[in-house]
Amino acid sequence: MKLKEIAIGYIEIPLVTPFKTALRTVNSVNDLIVKVTAEDGTEGYGEAPPTAVITGDTKESIEAAIRYYIAPSITGMGLDDLPSIMAKMEKCLAKNTTAKAAVDIALYDLYAKLQKKPLFRLLGEKDPSAVKTELETDITISVNDTDEMVRDSVKAVGEGFRILKVKVGKGGEKDVERIREIRKAVGKDVVIRVDANQGWTREEAVSTITAMEDAGLGIELVEQPVSYHDFKGMQYVTAHVQTPILADESVFSYEDGVRVMEEHGADLVNIKLMKTGGIHEAVKICDAADRFGIKCMIGCMLESKVSVSAGVHLAAARSCVTMADLDGPSLCKVDPYEGGPVYQGPKILLSEDYGIGITKVPVKFERI
Fold first, then answer.
1. What is the pTM of this model?
2. Is 66:8 a contact under the CB 8 Å cutoff?
3. Using CA atoms, how far apart are residues 235 and 209, in angstroms rounded to an integer?
4. In the 8-state DSSP scheme, what is residue 341?
5. What number does CATH give the domain 122-360?
6. CATH number for the domain whose boundaries are 3-117+361-367
7. H-assigned helices in the chain
8. How much is the pLDDT for 320?
């Protein structure tokens, strides 16, 4: 069975509230959707969120990468040999991880459908006992004035969320105040993860995290406290605080992940398909995590249900993945798709539907 064609389209989904981090503010999901079709008409779907401030990929660069490089390179290849397709896609252009991820996800979706298996079962074949059919995601609390963040946190807990991922990184003392007031409002049993999105210097990170520790705020972890390219800074922070440090933007590739694990650039690793270029590379990072005994989070950018569903399937398949930051669909006002994992507040339930489970995507596609 060969890959017959690749098509692209766009979707826009408004958010419940603006998504704010130390790096950006976003009001809606505006993503490129990829559809790949086999000779027998079976279709697979992928998604690419332009996140220039993190990945460097824009709407225009993603479309150009798929249209002029990826599609001409892999169309017509045999779908029974995914590793060869992935190798060809990797070599046809450097970087452009978001474009590669969208096509990679669509291909894995298609391949699993052709194998008549849900993707998480396919990815979990090496260790079926590790496979999960239910996950629990955190929910993101955007960085705002403290009072607004407290209200958002209380609202999330009222909706059943037990794990809050709180965005900070816009001022050390102010960040401590934000977390202190949130902890006071939600109580001691709610898990709080802090995400600085590269917003601190190494010195600010150590002083801010230490202040949170001294205040007894009970933080589970701190994500990407310093700039992604400041590896020495990540090592410094990891070595000088008690709270576990989670590497996010510092890990784009398998090589990045191994370096973090070998040289203790962080205690934990956040795997995002848009950084790794899709499932193929993400699986390699999971394999490395198994070897090093490192626990991982599967996260997402500001994505809708297509690509987040792929992340859900990967998280469900691997034992090294103990945390899920897959709340993208929960942040959207509507779910325009049919099928896929079912979101019940913080719970994500997987079905036995083939592929990633998405059966209908309301997008006008253009064949390329």
1. 0.95
2. yes
3. 14
4. P
5. 3.20.20.120
6. 3.30.390.10
7. 59-65, 71-74, 82-92, 97-114, 119-123, 146-158, 172-186, 202-214, 231-240, 254-263, 273-276, 279-292, 305-317, 328-331
8. 97
